[in-house]
Design a protein that fits this description.
By secondary structure, the chain is mostly helical. It has helices spanning 5-15, 20-24, 28-41, 43-47, 52-60, 62-67, 78-99, 105-122, 131-141, 152-165, 178-202, 204-220, 226-236, 238-247, 254-282, 290-304, 313-331, and strands spanning 127-128, 168-169. It is built from 17 helices and 2 strands. A two-stranded antiparallel sheet has the order 1-2.
Length: 347
């Protein structure tokens, strides 16, 4: 049955961020992506307004395309590659918040989450990619950056490059009933949202700490790339900018901006608290140089190494892990407080 453009626009307007129009067009991977990201943060949903005619045309000639799917290789797409990177990192961040308590998280959980995010984007439309090679690249990259949140970035890059290298057209397949498709989408949605909902409901305080820690680590990645850092901050402040554009200066006071400021203040205070605790572990004061931190780290490692404290093994292991965690915190570059803020006169 041919798909109608008018009905597609209606579904886009009513339930676009939930992917209803993609579900109608048989683009289940795209529908799932929109369900998990609320229409790409709303931006992807708006951008699709101009893309719907091509989506409808592609859905109506899907059978012809599938019959010729075995010929050739799909063209390279920079947009798809960037989307794979972003969604892979997004899946990795969600996994880091909800599953990082797992003993084998950085070996199994993190590369699996990032790889599945990349594969989800690779399967949008009439294309797909190789499951084994993409996940293999993610699993091989993960041990190189073991134990560090920044591992999300290289894992996503490796998986995205592999997915692009092994891109291909989807093979022909028989049509499935709507109930089967909804069942599959429901399972995938629950697999993604279940762990983070469980963490948020059963251990709210720890989950908030994970969110702040993850977001702080994510922002710190851009300390060496000020341009990207400014771009990220602009994206986070986009709702405020949109509100200002719609209603003008009337009715906008500093309280509106402070709502967004709370996000940065929360992350900053959490990072500062961790730094103060790390300094207490090292017995150093604020303003200690990198040389002093490194020297103190070497002294404490020698003192509390489990091999040198076999008579109190459990206590030594506890101190040893605490020292390593504190050193990782103190090694991270500090972002100047207030560097992200706009001057109120510019608003």
């Amino acid at each position: 049955m041919a798909k109608g453009l008018l009905l597609t626009y209606a579904l886009w307007a009513v339930g676009g961020p939930a992917g209803l129009h993609h579900l109608y067009l048989g683009r289940d991977s795209h529908a799932l992506l929109w369900m998990l990201t609320l229409g790409g943060g709303g931006l992807g949903w708006l951008w699709e307004f101009w893309m719907l005619p091509s989506f409808v045309a592609q859905a109506n000639r899907a059978q012809e395309q599938r019959q010729g799917s075995g010929r050739g290789t799909p063209p390279l797409s920079l947009i798809r590659f960037v989307a794979q990177m972003i969604v892979g990192m997004y899946f990795g961040l969600v996994a880091l918040i909800s599953l990082s308590f797992m003993a084998s998280f950085y070996i199994v959980g993190l590369p699996l989450a990032v790889g599945l995010g990349v594969l989800l984007v690779a399967a949008i439309g009439n294309q797909t990619s190789d499951l084994k090679n993409t996940l293999g690249a993610a699993f091989l990259t993960s041990p190189i950056f073991y134990g560090r949140p920044i591992a999300i970035l290289p894992i996503s890059l490796a998986a995205s490059l592999t997915a692009q290298k092994h891109r291909r057209y989807k093979p022909s397949a028989g049509s499935e009933t709507l109930s089967v498709r909804l069942y599959r989408l429901g399972l995938a949605y629950l697999a993604f949202t279940g762990p983070i909902v469980f963490s948020a409901l059963c251990n709210t305080a720890v989950t908030l700490s994970y969110v702040a820690d993850t977001l702080g680590s994510f922002l710190s990645w851009f300390s060496f790339f000020p341009l990207f850092g400014c771009l990220l901050e602009s994206v986070l402040l986009l709702p405020f900018q949109a509100w200002k554009l719609l209603v003008g200066d009337h009715g906008i006071s500093s309280s509106y901006f402070q709502e967004w400021e709370k996000l940065y203040e929360f992350v900053h205070s959490f990072q500062e608290e961790k730094r103060q605790l790390a300094l207490q572990v090292f017995g150093l004061s604020e303003g200690a140089t990198n040389e002093e931190i490194h020297g103190r780290f070497r002294e404490l490692v020698k003192t509390w190494h489990p091999d040198h404290n076999r008579h109190q093994m459990e206590e030594a292991q506890s101190h040893f892990l605490e020292i390593q965690a504190a050193y990782e915190v103190l090694r991270q570059p500090r972002k100047p407080r207030g560097s992200w803020r706009w001057e109120e006169t510019s608003l």
